[in-house]
Amino acid sequence: MAFKRNNDKRSDRNDRNDPASGPRKRVRYLDPNTVVDRDDTDFLRRFVTEHGKIVPARITGVTAMQQREIKRGVRRARTMGLLA
Question: Model's pTM, two decimal places?
Answer without folding.
Answer: 0.67
